[in-house]
Write a structure and sequence with these properties.
It is built from four helices and six strands. The chain is α/β, with parallel strands linked by helices.
Length: about 160
């Protein structure tokens, strides 16, 4: 299986590390005002060159709706709808145009908030990976008390800080 990930280039170079040979990352040039225009051109060229079996997409509203509708896509939902409601309203109006799209949320919270916008399409949850060698709590930072579950509104507002 060949996997092509189409993503946006950032202003600062990102070291993606070494990927398996069957995974390719295509980065859209960063262009603040012409993203939608450039994406249509690049997507059409890349699809002809890559002929991917699976395509992961991270956005739907920057020209991605110009992608061929009959291919197999995996659309990653990174942010909860409460943080970016305009994106989810756009998804709600465009998602039905894709014949074969699977949705993946990065958490249960993102999945629950996406449900009103995705026209009853199933959503899989695949959590973001964590490098446990790098992110290891020391013994003094581990809470000895019970875990506290925050209300979704508190979580969303704390993420905006």
């Amino acid at each position: 299986m060949n996997i092509v990930i189409y993503t946006w280039k950032s202003l600062n170079e990102i070291d993606w590390g070494k990927w398996q040979k069957n995974i390719q990352i295509r980065q859209m040039p960063f262009s603040r005002y012409f993203q939608q225009f450039f994406s249509k051109i690049f997507y059409r060229i890349w699809i002809m060159i890559d002929r991917p079996e699976k395509t992961l997409i991270n956005f739907l509203y920057h020209g991605e709706k110009s992608l061929p509708k009959d291919m197999e896509y995996y659309y990653i939902l990174h942010s909860p709808a409460s943080q970016v409601p305009h994106r989810y309203h756009f998804i709600k109006n465009q998602i039905h145009k894709f014949k074969n799209i699977s949705l993946i949320a990065v958490s249960q919270f993102v999945m629950r908030e996406a449900e009103p916008f995705i026209n009853k399409l199933p959503v899989s949850v695949i959590y973001n990976g964590v490098d446990t060698k790098y992110f290891t709590p020391n013994s003094s930072s581990i809470s000895k008390g019970p875990l506290v579950q925050l209300k979704p509104s508190l979580i969303a507002s704390s993420m905006l800080l």
